[in-house]
Amino acid sequence: MSAGLLRAMTLAVVGLSLFVAGCERPPPETVQRGYRGLGMVEVFNPRTVAAQVEANQVPAPLPAASPGGPAASAVFKNVKVLNDLSVGELTRTMAAMTAWVAPEQGCAYCHAPGEDLSSDSLYAKVVARRMLEMTRHINSTWKDHVATTGVTCYTCHRGKPVPSDIWFENPGPSTAQGVAGNRAGQNFPAPQVGLASLPYDPFTPFLDQKSEIRVVSTAALPGDNHHSIKQTEWTYALMIHISQSLGVNCTYCHNSRSFVSWDASTPQRATAWYAIRTVRNLNDEFMNPLASTLPASRRGPLGDGPKINFGTCHQGVYKPLFGAKMLADYPELSGVVIKAAVEPAPVAALPAGVLARILFETGKTDLGPESMQAIATAAKALQENAALKVDLSGYADRTGNPAANLELAKQRAFAVRDALKAAGVADVRIVLKKPEFVIGGADAEARRVDLVAAN
């Protein structure tokens, strides 16, 4: 190699180093989050953090309503959601929502000028009512994710009628016909996956269709793990989206020694596990059904309505609004309503040794709030008795396709296993049993997973 060529290459390397260094001014800083040598370090740039702090300032709370007064439902017509509030509380909440969601449009965003306030002629009012129900649902049902911090309308909207980070089903870019034009759902730079060549729509399979995210086996030389490289790329795409949405790197939740291990992960991984299920539930129960209410201009290219992902609330920071507890100033959105005591329905006693029995809807693997509570109770019993293990037995009936039913029973057991891990139960204490058929009919008892105590 000639001296001139070597000198040119050296100058090129030095120049490139200076260019890259110049892109990271001031120098990034780090925070160690785990044991040394594991790479468990969070990297951040003080300059961008300062900009994020500025962008996540919360508005001052409105003065509290005077206590007492007539019920809103007795004075106003067509109050379907906040009918447990007083007139003063309802008026204050509506004023806050206007400032949070439509500060420029004002009340006319939901109420047509000249019409009675009870009118539902504007679709925005119908949507706003459902969003109020969703906000209360999050704060009362998904405390495993939002804890006591909770959410308000401002958490996502930030003064905009439509939150800045929503998603629709992605048909992908227009390409040439034939094999040469088939990008296989990826190989196109998409901002939601860090401009990588990974699948450009990681949301539909995981945040709408509830596909399995885990792709790494828990045993050496596994014989039953049939996940493909393509499925692995979908998982990586979702993880990149989560990392971007929270402004963190992988070690915020995972131990780099073993990304699959729950025992070595940080507590934030359990919070993220609940977050995925929270988003799925909200898209399924609230966002998707609203598509028919929206005008064509508010729908996606395939006709679906807007949906939630992790950026919708977090918007680039590890906690929405850096953990500001706005809900404390607006308890009307907490969803906690005091009602008269009702005698609980009798519950059938579980067989001896069964810590919990988790029931499922037909064809589904979702864990509802009651199931999560039962799993939490079982996890507490396991934590109190270190010698105890738990067998997970999934059951199915023979109606329909028996093979598909057994596979569904196995996936339900996997869902319960992951919930136990998220609740702090070590993997070695969970034993998955082979799915079985239930003798008898096809009622809810056939669609279950039993958590059985074992030594």
Structural summary, described in words:
This protein is of the alpha/beta class. The protein has 4 domains: 3-45, no CATH class; 72-161 and 327-333, Photosynthetic Reaction Center, subunit C, domain 2 (Orthogonal Bundle); 186-215 and 228-314, Photosynthetic Reaction Center, subunit C, domain 2; 354-454, 2-Layer Sandwich (60s Ribosomal Protein L30, Chain: A), CATH 3.30.1330.60. The chain is built from 13 helices and 7 strands. It has helices at 3-22, 46-55, 72-75, 87-101, 123-141, 143-146, 153-157, 203-208, 229-246, 267-287, 310-314, 369-384, 402-422, and strands at residues 29-32, 41-44, 354-359, 389-396, 430-432, 436-437, 448-454. The strands form 2 sheets. Strands 3, 4, 5, 6 and 7 form a 5-stranded mixed sheet that branches. Strands 1-2 form a two-stranded antiparallel ribbon. A hairpin with an 8-residue loop joins strand 1 (29-32) and strand 2. The longest helix is centred in the middle third of the chain and has 21 residues, at 267-287. The model is unreliable at 337-347 (pLDDT under 50).
